[in-house]
C-alpha cells in the first residue's frame, strides 16, 4: 500500500471564520476512509480543500499528494490533478456536468482535457466503466441529458464519470444521501468494486454510520471542525475515545 494523501496539522478557514482545526490523517492506495459528523462540522470543506476548490483556505499545515504539496501548485498543475489523479463526486448532484450537454459530450470533454483521445475511444472507455459498474444500457445513458436520468442514475453516472481518467483517489461527498435505500446500497457496492478493480482510494463523506461501517477501512469522526476519533473503523466503532463518537454510535446503531 502506497501512501497517497497526507494532511499535516491543517487548519482551514473561510474569510475570517475558522472551520477545521489541526487535521492530520493519511490515505493509502485502495483504502476507503469514511468521514462522519454532524451537519456543518466541516466534511465538505475538508474535501474541497484537497482540490483547492473555491472558498476554503488552508491557513496552517500542509496537504501532500504523493509527497508533493498540493498547496504549492499553480492553477494549471492543479487542473491536471483534478479529474485525472483525484476526482470528486459532488454532494448536490453527483454528476458534475453541464445540464445542457449529453453525457457523451461530458465524457469526451473530461477525457480530452487530460489526454489526446478520439471521441470513439473516449465513449468506449465510458461504456466499459458503465458495464463494469453494471449500469444498464450504457448507450442510452451516453445519449441522455442529465435531466433525462433519475437522481439515483445521475449519482451512479457521476461515480462512473469520476473514474474516467482512472484517478488514484475519489472524493465522494454524500453520494447516497437523498437516494432510496436500494440505490444507496447499489452505490456503496459500486464504490467497493472500484476499489477492488482499480485499487482506487476513496474518501467517503456520509451521515450514515451504518454505511460507513459496512464499507470503510478507516474512519474519521469530526466534531465542530476537530477530529473526535480517527483510526481503523472496527476499532473506532467498538471502542470510541470521545464522548461525541459514543453518542453518535449510540444514536445510529443503538
Ligand atoms: N462558502 C462558504 N463561505 C463561508 N462559510 C462556509 C462556506 N461553506 C461552508 N461554510 C461554513 O463552514 C462550516 C462547515 O461547512 P461544510 O459544508 O464543510 O459542512 P458539512 O460537514 O459538509 O455539512 P453537511 O453535512 O450539512 O453537508 C459551516 O459552518 C458552514 O456554514
Ligand atoms: Mg457537506
CA gyration radius, whole angstroms: 18 Å
Uncertain segments are: none
Helix content: 25-40%
Percent of residues in β-strands: 25-35%
* CATH topology value: Rossmann fold
**Main sheet summary:** 6 strands, mixed
Terminal Cα span: 34 Å
Global mean pLDDT? 90
Global shape: globular
CATH homologous superfamily grouping: P-loop containing nucleotide triphosphate hydrolases
CATH class: Alpha Beta
Q: Bound small molecules, which ones?
A: adenosine-5'-triphosphate, magnesium ion
Helix and strand sequence: EEEHEEHEHHHHEHEHEEHH
How many β strands by DSSP?
Answer: 10
Topology:
Layout: E1 3-14, E2 17-28, E3 32-36, H1 43-50, E4 57-65, E5 68-69, H2 75-81, E6 86-89, H3 103-112, H4 119-132, H5 138-142, H6 151-162, E7 169-173, H7 181-198, E8 201-205, H8 209-215, E9 218-223, E10 226-232, H9 233-238, H10 243-253
Parallel strand pairs: 3-8, 3-9, 6-7, 7-8
Antiparallel strand pairs: 1-2, 1-4, 4-5, 9-10
Keywords: ATP-binding, Cell membrane, Membrane, Nucleotide-binding, Transport
Pfam family, one: ABC_tran
Organism: Lachnoanaerobaculum saburreum
Describe this entry's structure for a reader.
The chain is an alpha/beta fold. It has one domain (3-253): P-loop containing nucleotide triphosphate hydrolases (Rossmann fold, 3-Layer(aba) Sandwich), CATH 3.40.50.300. It has helices at residues 43-50, 75-81, 103-112, 119-132, 138-142, 151-162, 181-198, 209-215, 233-238, 243-253; strands spanning 3-14, 17-28, 32-36, 57-65, 68-69, 86-89, 169-173, 201-205, 218-223, 226-232. α7 links the parallel β7 (169-173) and β8. The model has no long low-confidence stretch (mean pLDDT 90). The protein binds adenosine-5'-triphosphate and magnesium ion. Magnesium ion (MG) binds at residues 43-44, 91, 173.
